[in-house]
């Protein structure tokens, strides 16, 4: 019965005006970016300009609101990023570059969501298992398999083992991604990789060009 009531109340949230839903979601994501333990519902309702009672009516608890945001973020990333990726090039490096641009566009269109997700990966105070990490791993593996399945290995230099080149490219991309995560984590919860987006994009372009010079004809 309690589970059904939660579903009914959440359904009521979805019947709200779209702009009001967005205001509540963005306010909550902004607050949780500083960490689950530090997040205050008082700040959320003030930012969203709604009563505190409505937050608990729709989501039950602070934890219920957090889980809703995680599911919402996963859904948006799937629809606005993963589902929009179309591997059209046989050039593995061009595909990786285009995906990085698409991810950048997502961060500009959904800044609150992007910051929330970036910090949720690092938040050890958050409840439950980190669904974002597990979903990211699944999506990343599927995406890489698509990219490499379409790769034209004749683009590589004749004296280079294509499979070894692909592995080095993958390791390089993973290493660079981890360096960004590490840099963000050093600043603590509440920081945003978006602050240095242009720098990261330029640096990543240099990495792509260097890999191209190393492996391509």
How much is the average pLDDT?
83
| Rounded radius of gyration (Å) | 20 Å
Beta-strand content estimate:
under 5%
For the record, the CATH class of the largest domain is: Mainly Alpha
Low-confidence stretches: none
The name of the CATH topology of the largest domain is Tetracycline Repressor, domain 2
Number of helices: 10
Overall structural class, as computed from helix and strand content, comes to: mainly alpha
Can you walk through the features of this model?
The chain has 217 residues and is mainly alpha-helical. It has 2 domains: 2-70, Arc Repressor Mutant, subunit A; 86-215, Tetracycline Repressor, domain 2 (Orthogonal Bundle), CATH 1.10.357. It has helices spanning 2-14, 18-32, 41-48, 52-59, 62-80, 92-109, 111-120, 131-149, 162-187, 197-215. The longest helix has 26 residues, at 162-187. The termini are far apart.
Key attributes of the depicted protein:
Tetracycline Repressor, domain 2, mainly alpha, 2 domains, about 220 residues
Topology of helices and strands:
Blueprint (H helix, E strand, L loop, with lengths): L1 H13 L3 H15 L8 H8 L3 H8 L2 H19 L11 H18 L1 H10 L10 H19 L12 H26 L9 H19 L2
Task: Briefly characterize the structure.
With 217 residues, the protein is mainly alpha-helical.
